[in-house]
Amino acid sequence: MELVADTNIAIAAILRPGTTRSLIFYPGVRLYAPEHIATEIDSHRTELARKSQLPKEDYLEAVQIVLSNIPITPVQDYQEFKRDALAVSPDRDDWAFFAVALQRNCAIWSNEKRLKNQNKVKVYNTMELLELLKTK
Known about the structure:
Oligomer: single chain
CATH class: Alpha Beta
Number of helices: 9
Distance between the termini: 10 Å
Radius of gyration: 15 Å
CATH architecture: 3-Layer(aba) Sandwich
Order of helices and strands: EHHEHHHEHHHEEH
Mean pLDDT: 95
Shape: globular
Number of strands: 5
CATH topology: Rossmann fold
Low-confidence stretches: none
Strand content: 5-15%
């Protein structure tokens, strides 16, 4: 199963062990993200490191480990889907996640309810993804 992981999913996996982190490494789940996910996470580095309660080195290692399992899609690979993504995305800031989903013809994994306010790209929250994986 291929999915586009939004930034908050990656952040949840970085901050603490649990269901989200386990799903990031779940066999049979292949995740992708747009190019700016690493920049977005890095822009909140100080706050996220504090929230993780990890020493700086351990926090940086957690970021590296999580992002190593979420291949970054270069913007040139999904740029041609920008217009359609902007038309679909309930939030202009999330257009790149929709563009990668359209480019890869897959769903998005996000716990942001507003991303479901469209009917072009399937969006699974963590609980829905767990249920879906149980049936496979």
